[in-house]
Amino acid sequence: MGKKKYVTLEEFEDKYIGKRGTPEREEYEFSLSMEILGEKIKKIRKENNLTQEELGKLVGVQKAQISKLEKGASSATISTINKVFSALKAKVKMHIEFEDESDLALS
User: pTM, whole model, 2 decimals?
Assistant: First the structure.
């Protein structure tokens, strides 16, 4: 038997999804980020013993919007995301990196 060649996740993503910076890769990265964000919202909502409907009322959106957010199926505005986490009494911190290696941290 031959030696197995292992690849990194980055190499796998480059090959099957597309290199960083390509539209396919950007869409994948965004979708993945929204999925992770949705899981966090759901976890914190449940820890606060809130239903989707109750959270929606606190935020000023319909239950369906909270459901979409939790499933990662919605590309909500930063304002809506801030309102959701504010209603959940959670802080939002954002870190933005630029290609020239400078960065900007927002809280």
Answer: 0.68
